[in-house]
Amino acid sequence: MMQREHDDVCGRHSTPQEESCCLANNGRSQALHLNYGSTLLEQSVDDSPICRSISSVSPTIRVYHRRWYILFVFSLLAFMQGGLGNVWSVIAGSVEIVFGWTDVDISLMQIWLYLAYLVSMFPFAWLIDQKGLRISLLISAGLLVLGTALRCMTVHTPAATWLAHIAHIAVGLAGPVSYAAGPYLSSLWFPPEQRSTATAVATVSGFAGGAGCFIFGPFIVESPKLKPIIPSIFDNSTDSNVDAMQHEILFCRYIECGVCVLILVMAFIYFPSRPPASPSITAAMGKLSFISGLKDLFSRENLNFWFICVPYAMSLSIYGVWNGLFGVNLKELVEQHDIGWIGFAAVMAGAVAAVVLGRMSDLFCGHMKLFLLLLNVVCIASTFWFLLIAQKYILYSRVQLYLAAILQGLSNNGAVPLYFELAIETTYPVTEVCVSTIMNTLYNVLPLLFLLIFLIPNVGTLWMNWCMYGVVLACFPFLLVFKEKYKRLMVDKGRALAPESVQNSFQENLSYSNRAA
Predict the structure, then answer these.
(1) Do residues 286 and 510 touch, judged by C-beta distance below 8 A?
(2) Which tens digits make up the pLDDT trace of 304-338?
(3) What whole-number distance in Å separates Cα of residue 53 and Cα of residue 49?
(4) What is the per-residue pLDDT for 455?
C-alpha cells in the first residue's frame, strides 16, 4: 500500500482511473492527469473546475535561470543571519575578559535574539504574504546592517555592552525572513523536481553561517590562553593582551558589517517579489490567504501537521541554542579554538547532509518520513555519546568528541528541509509562509525556556547535555505516528485536483502571470 502511494506521487505508474485534460503552455500541449485513487471522476473532464479555469486562461509555466541568483542572495542573507547571533558565545573566554561579561550576559543576549524574532515574526509573515519577498528582504538586510554597525561603534564598556544588547535585538528582528521564507522562495521560483533542494540550500544557509562564526571569531580573536591562528594581523608589541583582543574583536565586527552592506546593495539592485511566470501549477494557482491558513492549521483536519512541527521545533531549536553555547558548555574541557572547530564541523556536516538529503528527496520522492526516522535514531545515539564524553563518564578523547559532534550535527540539521517540505505537503493549500511561520514561532519559543534556566543561581552546565538528549529522544514517537502525505506534489504531478478552496483564485493568478510575462 505504501509503495503504491509512493508510485502515485512520483508518477511512475498510471491507472485506468485517470482522466486527462490539456494545459496550453506557450503553444505546447501537455497532459494533466487527475487521479482520485480508487474513485472514478463522476464529472466529465471538460466540466471539471480546473479544466474550465485552464480553458479560459492559459497559465505560463516557466523556469528562469535567474532563480539561482535569487537563491544566492537569499542564502547569503540567511548565512549572515545565522552567524551574527553567535558572535559572542564562540569567543566567550575573550569577551568575558575584555568586557567583563559573564555566562549570564551572553545568555541574555541570546534571549533578546529570540524575543525580537517573535515580535517581528507575524508582521514579516503578513508583509511577505501581501507584498511579496522583495520589501521584506530589504528591511531584513537593513536591520542586519544596523545591528552590525552598532557593534562597530566602540569596544569600551559600558557603551559596548549596551550596544551589543541593542544589536542583538536588531539582528533578532531581522530573523523571520531568513528562517521562514526559504520554502516560500523555493515554491515561487523552482519547479517541483528542484523544490526540496532549493529549500535545503535556503534553510541550511543559516546553519552554515552559525558554523562559520565558530571559526571566524577564534581565527582572529586571541584566546586568553592561546594566540589567535593568524596573530600577525595586529602588532601586539605595545598593546596589552586586552587591548589586542579589543582590536581583534572590532576588526571582526567591521568585516561583518561590510558583508551585510554588500547583501543590501545586491538585493536592492535586483530581487523581485516574484517571477514573471510561475514554475509549477500549484504556484500559479495560489493558496489560502495568510489568516485563513492560520485558522486551517489549528483545525482538526490538520492535527497531523503538529506531529511534524513539534519534533522540528524541539530538536532543531534546542540544538541551535545548545550548539551556539559550546563556548560556555565546553570551556572547561577544551580550548577556545578547539570549540570553534568542533562547532564548525558539526554544523557544516548538517548543512551538507541537508542539501544531499534534499536532493535525494527530489529524486526519490515519497520517502521523507523514512529519512527523518533514520536521522533521528542516529541523532539519539550520537547525542548520548557526546554526553558521555563531555561529562567524562567515559575516558575523554578529542577524536571521539569531534566524531560525536559531527554525527549529531549531520543527523539533526540534515533533517531541516525534510521537516519543512513534509509540513508544507501535508497542509497544502496553506501557504508556505504560513506553515513556516508557525513552525519557526514554536522554534523560537522553546529556546527561551532553555536560556532562562541560566538565570537560576549556580545552575552550572551539566543540565544542558541531558536536556539535549531528552529532547531528541522525545522526537521519535511524534515522527512515528506522523502520516506521510504529498498533497501539493500530487497536484503538480497531475495526480489530483487542487482543493476547491483555491480554485476560485486560480483565474486571477493565471491572469497576473500572463500580464507579467
Answers:
(1) no
(2) 999 999 999 999 888 888 877 776 677 677 776 67
(3) 6
(4) 74
The phi-psi region of residue 291 (left if phi > 0; otherwise alpha if psi is between -120 and 50; otherwise beta) is alpha
At 463, which amino acid appears? Answer: W
State CA 72 to chain mean position distance. Answer: 15
Around Cβ 380, how many Cβ atoms within 10 Å? Answer: 19
Q: Which amino acid is at 368?
A: M
Is there a contact between 87 and 213 (Cβ–Cβ < 8 Å)?
A: yes
Choice between 242 and 409, residue whose per-residue pLDDT is larger: 409
Is residue 385 very low, low, confident or very high in pLDDT (cuts 50, 70, 90)?
very high
d(CA 35, CA 16): 10
Nearest Cα to Cα of residue 420 among 256, 198, 211: 198
CA atoms within 13 A on the CB side of 52: 8
Are the beta carbons of 403 and 386 closer than 8 angstroms? no
C-alpha cell at 497: 485536483
Are 350 and 414 in contact, with CB atoms under 8 Å apart?
Answer: yes
Q: For position 230, what pLDDT does the model report?
A: 47
- Share the mean pLDDT of the chain: 78
Dihedral in degrees, nearest 10, Cα atoms 513, 438, 407, 470: -170
CA 259 to chain centre: 20
Distance of CA 464 to the CA centre of its chain: 23
Cis peptide before 218 (omega within 30 of 0): no
Place of cell 535561470: 65
CB contact at 8 A, 397 and 256:
no
Q: Which residues contact 168 (CB under 8 A, 6 or more apart)?
A: 85, 109, 110, 112, 113, 116, 147
- Provide the pLDDT for residue 113: 86
